[in-house]
Structure formats: structure tokens, C-alpha cells
Write a structure and sequence with these properties.
The protein is an all-alpha fold. It contains 13 helices and no strands. The chain folds into three domains: 127 residues, no CATH class; 132 residues, no CATH class; 105 residues. The longest helix is centred in the last third of the chain and has 36 residues.
Length: 393
């Protein structure tokens, strides 16, 4: 993972702590400075922390597995990604459509360049994870178009029935799900000493998650009269692939003793939160509960519980391998962080159906804010040790 991406990951983690604190303070009516930045908070985790790791890691990781030369640092990708993200955040804050369009365009360019890098690494010796990464990044390209179009009225031209839902599904069930699965395929052997699973199982998981994501995206795109078959089929396929992936991960972590450590449980617990919306979806389809409150609030515990928690375990591991050159680094996280994220997510889910929604929402984000402290300290300590080693050398 290249040094510029390491520092931007660290920076976005630092800012993410204050963004989470802001959510809590706004919910308690203690401040009204940034009351409308719900989607900014989510994007600091996804386009911020997650994308820095993905863009900085994948080309060199795949090249190493494929026994090819390590690609050089692509400053054009890094600058496009981060300039675009900065413009998007500024545009979201002030609802400035030209800024949003410019930001979305730059992020799209950076993602297209990453896609090209990964595509060029195909070959006989390419790792099994590469197809997860290429397909995940392709879904991200779709998600960027849809997300930018939310603010520019592209949805009518594209005949999208529920544009926000389609955008979330493309990024969550398409991009993040597939990239995380690829990372587990690659890192499980490094962490546990054994492969995640046999080639046939990995291929089946890939197709289940890929086709499932397509159905989940297609369902809210097309007219309501024909939306249920692709949505239900997509949910079933994606759920089957995800459960299979999690079972293989748990088996490998248990056999290697990593379930006696908080880091292993962070990985396992993170997948509870991606399964939660999938399990709630049938009640929405059957109109047992209203969709509006769930769709507006559920992405918060999904991103913080799943994406952030997955990162808490894996990012410090990657930093230790990259910066400290440790051969068998520990997974990140702690039992306290695991507890805080679990309680925070549960409280925010309960807030969806509670008359004291704002109070519970504020408590949940207060717990998320505290949960940021330990991983931030962990990453800072790794960077400090690497800086000392560099100065001594």
C-alpha cells in the first residue's frame, strides 16, 4: 500500500471521529452546525477510509499474487480520487450542483483508471480474488454515476424508480461486498495459514454475490409491477453467497485460533450488519413495516457496523505488513471497540421504530465516536513506529 494512501486513510479516520461526534451532538440538539450531513458521514467511511485502502492496495496486492512487477504509484489516480472526494463533500454541504458534478466526474475517472490497472493484471497466474475486485470496481462505477445523478436529476432520464436505493445497492451489495470477499480470499491465507476455500467454492461465492447484486440493483430500478422477482432472486443469491463466505471465514479463523482475539470477532461481527438489511427486506416487501424510516436510517449502522468494523480488523493488519514489515501481524481492534460498535448499531436500529428516535440516534453515534478512538490510536502508533524505523535507517 503506497504511502500517500496510508496518510489519507489516517486523515479520513481522524476526520471520521469528528463527523460521528457531530451526528450525536446534532441529534441531542446541542449543535446545529451540520444537521444535513448524514450522507457526508457515510461517504467519509466509504469514499474516504475504504476507497483509500482499496485504491492504494489492490494493484500491488494482485500483482504480487500474480508474480508480476509491483506497479508504480499512480499520482493521477490518487489526485483525482481525493480532489473529487473533496469537491463532493463541499458540494453535498452546500448543495452546489456544479461541485457535485465535478467531484463525481473526478472520482469516476480515478475509478476507471483503477479498473484499467486491475484489468491489465489478468492472466493465467492471476489470483482468484481478481474477479471479485474487477466486478466490484465495475459496480462502483455504476454507483458513482447513480450517486452523482441523484443531485442532477438524471434518474428520470435513466428511468430509475427508486434512485437512492439503487445507488446504495450498487455501492453496498456490488462494490463493497465483492471487494471485501476478494480481500478475505487474499488475506485469509496470510492470517490463518490456510486458504479460505477450494476454487469451486470461491467461484460459486463469486457468482452468487455478483448475480445477487445485479438482482438487488435491478429490482428498485424497474417498474414496481415487475420488481419483486429480480429483487427476491437477488437477495437469495447474495445471501447464500455471503453466508457461505462467512462460514468459510469462521472455519479458518477458528482453526487458527483467531476467534480468541478481538480482531477475529470484528471480522465475524461485521457481517451481522450486512445481513441485517437483507433479513429485514422481506418485511418491507410484504409491507409489514414502512420502508421510508428503514431506508433513511439503516445505511448508518450498515456502514459503521460492517464497513468500518471490517476495516478496524484489517487496516491495522495491512499497515503493519506494509510499514513495519511484520510477517505475522495481529488483526486490529479491541473487545471494547467491538462492544461499542455492536451496542451503537443495535441502538440505532431500535431508534428506527422508537418515538424517541433522536435521543437513541444520538446515543448510538456517541458510542460510534468513542469506538473511533482505539483504531485511530492503533494506526497512529503504527505510523509512529514506522517513522522511528525510517529515521534510524
Amino acid at each position: 500500500m503506497s504511502i500517500p494512501y496510508i496518510f489519507t486513510t489516517l486523515f479520513y479516520t481522524f476526520v471520521g471521529l469528528f463527523i460521528a461526534a457531530d451526528a450525536s451532538l446534532v441529534s441531542f440538539n446541542l449543535t446545529g452546525a451540520f444537521p444535513a450531513l448524514r450522507w457526508v458521514r457515510v461517504h467519509f467511511i466509504t469514499l474516504g477510509i475504504l476507497s483509500q485502502v482499496v485504491f492504494g492496495l489492490l494493484p500491488s496486492l494482485v500483482a504480487n499474487h500474480a508474480k508480476k512487477a509491483k506497479p508504480s504509484m499512480r499520482w493521477d489516480i490518487w489526485l483525482s480520487l481525493n480532489a473529487g472526494f473533496a469537491l463532493l463533500i463541499a458540494g453535498f454541504s452546500g448543495m452546489n450542483h456544479p461541485q457535485i458534478f465535478a467531484g463525481g466526474t473526478l472520482v469516476f475517472i480515478a475509478t476507471s483508471l483503477l479498473f484499467g490497472e486491475l484489468w491489465n493484471l489478468r492472466g493465467n497466474e492471476a489470483p482468484a480474488s481478481l474477479k471479485f475486485y474487477i466486478t466490484g470496481v465495475a459496480y462502483l462505477l455504476l454507483g458513482i454515476i447513480l450517486g452523482t445523478g441523484l443531485f442532477l436529476n438524471w434518474s428520470e432520464a435513466l428511468h430509475i424508480r427508486v434512485p437512492l436505493e439503487v445507488h446504495i445497492h450498487a455501492n453496498s451489495w456490488g462494490f463493497m461486498s465483492l471487494v471485501f470477499a476478494g480481500l478475505l480470499v487474499d488475506f485469509t491465507p496470510m492470517i490463518t495459514g490456510k486458504p479460505l476455500g477450494e476454487k469451486k467454492a470461491i467461484d460459486s461465492i463469486y457468482w452468487g454475490m455478483t448475480l445477487g447484486a445485479f438482482g438487488i440493483i435491478l429490482g428498485p430500478w424497474i417498474p414496481a409491477s415487475i420488481s419483486e422477482p429480480p429483487t427476491v432472486a437477488g437477495l437469495l443469491l447474495h445471501l447464500a453467497g455471503t453466508i457461505w463466505l462467512v462460514v468459510l471465514m469462521i472455519r479458518a479463523l477458528k482453526a487458527s485460533g483467531h476467534l480468541s482475539q478481538a480482531g477475529g470477532w470484528h471480522l465475524v461481527a461485521s457481517y451481522v450488519w450486512i445481513l441485517m438489511p437483507v433479513l429485514v427486506a422481506p418485511t418491507i416487501l410484504l409491507k409489514l413495516i414502512p420502508s421510508g424510516p428503514v431506508e433513511s436510517t439503516a445505511p448508518q449502522p450498515l456502514i459503521y457496523g460492517w464497513v468500518f468494523q471490517f476495516g478496524i480488523a484489517l487496516i491495522p493488519y495491512i499497515f503493519r505488513r506494509t510499514l513495519l514489515k511484520e510477517k505475522n501481524p495481529a488483526l486490529g481492534g479491541s473487545w471494547l471497540t467491538l462492544t461499542l460498535l455492536t451496542l451503537g448499531g443495535l441502538i440505532i436500529w431500535i431508534s428506527i421504530f422508537s418515538p424517541i428516535e433522536n435521543v437513541l440516534y444520538g446515543i448510538g453515534f456517541a458510542l460510534y465516536t468513542i469506538a473511533f478512538i482505539q483504531p485511530l490510536k492503533e494506526l497512529l502508533d503504527i505510523v509512529r513506529k514506522a517513522t522511528v524505523k525510517f529515521e534510524e535507517a
